[in-house]
Amino acid sequence: MQNGYVERILLWGTRIGIWLLLFVTPLVVSGSLFFPFITGKNFFFRIVVEIVFGLWAGLVVVNPSFRPRKGPLLWAFSGFVSILFIAGMLGADAAHSFWSNFERMEGIVTHLHLLALFIMTASVFRTKKDWILTFHVSLAASFIVACIGLLEKTGSIAIPGSSPGRVFATLGNPIYLALYLLIHMFLLGIVIRWITQYWARVAYGLLFLFELYIFFASGTRGAVVGLFAGFIVGLVVFMFTTPDARMKRISLVLLIIGFMSVGGLFMSRESVFVQSRPLLTRFANISLSSATAESRFTIWRMAWEGFKERPILGWGPGNFIIPYATYYDPNLFGNEPWFDRVHNMHFEWLVTTGIIGFTAYVGLWGSVVILLWRLWRRNVFDSITVSLLAALFTAYLVQNSFVFDTVISYMLITVLFAFLHSLSVPYGEEKSSILSAGMRNNRILVAGCCVAAGIILASTLHTKQIQVARGIITTLQSASQGTALILNEQFDATIAKGTFGVTEARERFMDLVLQASREPNVSGQDLLLLVTKNIDEMEKQVAKKPQLLRHHISLGKLYQLRFALTGNKSDRDHSIDIYNVGIAMAPNYPPTYIGIAETYLTDNNFEEATNAVDTIYQKMTRPNSIIYSVLLVSVLAGDFDRAAEQVERYVSLGNTPEYPAPAWFEPPKLEDVIRRSFVRGGVAEREVFLRTVLAAQENSIVLMALAETLVEQGKNEEARSFALRAREIAPPEGVIEIDKFIRGLDDF
C-alpha cells in the first residue's frame, strides 16, 4: 500500500514536471538576466529536468517497470550524445563545448538534459491517451505564444528588439517563433485526427488557422520552405500508405496544386498584388542569388574547409567560431562579424563532431524513419498520422538547413522522439516479487535520496551562473551612473563567480570601455582606469583561450586605445604584436587588418596603415563594404594615388560573372570618406582621386567635393559647372547648401 502511494506521487510528479516544461519554458522571459529570451528559458529547463529526473529515478527504484526500454531510437540518441561528449572533450575548446555560453545556452550539458528528458518522457507516457493530454499541454502554450504574437503584430504590446513587420512573441527571434509554431501546426493535425468530437475538431482547426497566420507574420522564409517541403513529403507518404485509391488521386491533385501555387507566386513576384503585400514580397523574393543566400553558401564552404582539417571528431560542439575565423572568406565582410553557428544544423554537426558525429546524427534520424515505418506497419499509426509526422520531421530538417536549434525546438523534437519510442516498445508490468517490509522501506528510502539529489543538484549547479547573468545586466545598466572605480568593482564581483559566463562578462566590459571611449563626458583618468582593467582581464582571457581570434582583436584594440591615451610606445608595440598573431591565425579576416591599421594611424605611421588595409582588400574578388575603411585609411594618410587605384579596382570587381551587378558606392558612407579627404594631402592629388570616384559613380556629394577642391586651386568656373551638375541630382535638402556655394562663387 505504501509503495503504491509513493509510486503514484513520483509518477504524477514526473508527468507534471514534463508538462510544466512544455507549458512554461516557451513563456519564460527573464529581463534581469543577460540574453533574457535565452538564459531564462534554459535555466528553467535545466532546473526542472534535474528535479524531475530525481523524481523519475525514485520512481524506477520503487517500480522497475518504469526503466527505459530498449529500442533503436534510445540507442541512437544515447550514442549521439555520447559522441558529442567525446568530440567535445577532444575538441578545440572542451569547456565551451560542455557549457556553451549565455547567448546560445546549448553545449553538451543541454544535450545530457535532453537525453534525460527523452528517457523520462518515454517511460511515463505510454498510451495514446497520455500523449493526447501531453500534446494538449504544449498546444495550450503555443496558443498563448501566438496570442502574444498577435498583440505584438497589432502594436498592442511592444517587445524590445523586435523588427517592423515581423513578430517573435516570447521566443526572442522570428526564426524561433516560426519553428515553434511549425511544429505545433503539425501536432494540431495529429490531435485533430485522434480526437472524435466534432466541436473539438472545429476548434482545433480554427487554432491551426490562427497559428498559421502568426507563423507567416514571423516572415521567416526558411520555415516557409520547410512547411512546403513537409507538405510535399507528407502527401507523398500518404499516397504510398493509404489503401484508398480515391485519396491517392486527391493527394496527387494537391501535390500539383502546391507546386503550381509556388510557381505562380514566383512568376507574379513583380505584380502589384504581390508587391503591395510585404510578406508576399518577402517570400516571393526567395532566391539562391540573394545576399542572404550567398552569405549562407559562403559560410557553408568555410564549414567544409573546417571539416577537412578535423574530419574525424570535428572541432567540438559549439566551436565553429574557430574554423570560421581560420577559413574566413574576406568577401563575407559586411555581414555579422562573427558567426558562431553554421546556420545549417547538418553542416554544424559535420564540422563540430566530424564524420563520426555526423554518422551518429544520420543514424538518429534513420532510427526515426524506422520507427515511423514500424508503427505504421503495426497499425499503431494510420496513414494520416504517419504522413503528418513525416511532414513534421521533414519541415523541421529542411528549415534547419538555414538556421539552428534552441532549447525550445530541441525540447519539442525530443518529446516527439519519446512519443515514437514509447509507442514502439512494449511496456508491461514487471514480474511481481514478494518484498519484505524492510526491502520496501529500503526502496522508498533510496527513492527519497534520488529525489533529494535532484533537488540539491538543481538548486546548486546553476546558482553562480544565474548570478553572473544577472551581474552582467546590473553592470550594463549602471554604466551611465557609476564611476570607473564602481564599474570595476561590479565587474570584479561578477567574474569572481568563476562560471562559463566570465568570458561574456569580459566581452561586455570591453563593450562598455569602447562606449566610454566615445563619450566626451568621460574623463581621461576614468577611461584609462577602465582600459587598464579591461586589458588585465583580456590578457587572462587570451591566455585561457588562445585559439579564439576575437579575443586577440579585442586585446589589440585595448592596447591601441591606451596608446592613444598615454602615448606609451610599449602599448603600441603590444597592439601590433597581438594583431600580427591574429593575422597569422586567420590571414583572411579583415577586422584584424583594420585594427592594426588603426594602431598605425594612431602612431602616424601612414604607410604601414595603408599597406595593412590594402593587403586584405586585394584578396577580395567582389565589391565589398570594406572599401570605405580602405579608402578612409588611404585619404587620412594623404595617399590619394593609392585611393584612386583602390576605387578603380572596386569598380572592376562589378559587372563580372561572379558579381553581375555594377559596383555601387553607398552615398552616406562615401560622404564620410570624402569629408575626411580634406584633412590631409595635396589639393591636386585629391582632385585626381575625386575625379576617379566621379567617373565610377556620379554623385552630388562627389561633385560638390570636387567643386570645393577646384576653388582651392582658383578654378572657379569649372567649380561652378560641377556645382550646377550637383544641384540637378542633389536631394532637396542639399540644394540650399549648393545654392549658397554658387552664390559664394559670384562674390569672388
UniProtKB/TrEMBL annotation:
SUPFAM superfamilies in the record: TPR-like (SSF48452)
Localization (cell): Membrane
Gene3D superfamilies attached to this UniProt entry: Tetratricopeptide repeat domain
Span of domain O-antigen ligase-related: 207-362
Keywords, alphabetical: Membrane, Transmembrane, Transmembrane helix
PANTHER family: TEICHURONIC ACID BIOSYNTHESIS PROTEIN TUAE
Pfam family, one: Wzy_C
Top-level taxon in the UniProt lineage: Bacteria
Species this protein is from: Candidatus Ryanbacteria bacterium CG10_big_fil_rev_8_21_14_0_10_43_42
Membrane-spanning ranges: 12-37, 43-62, 74-96, 108-125, 132-151, 171-191, 198-216, 222-240, 252-269, 349-373, 380-398, 404-423, 444-462
InterPro entries for the chain: O-antigen_ligase-rel_domated (IPR007016), TPR-like_helical_dom_sf (IPR011990), WaaL-like (IPR051533)
Membrane-protein topology: Multi-pass membrane protein
GO cellular component: membrane
Name of this protein: O-antigen ligase-related domain-containing protein
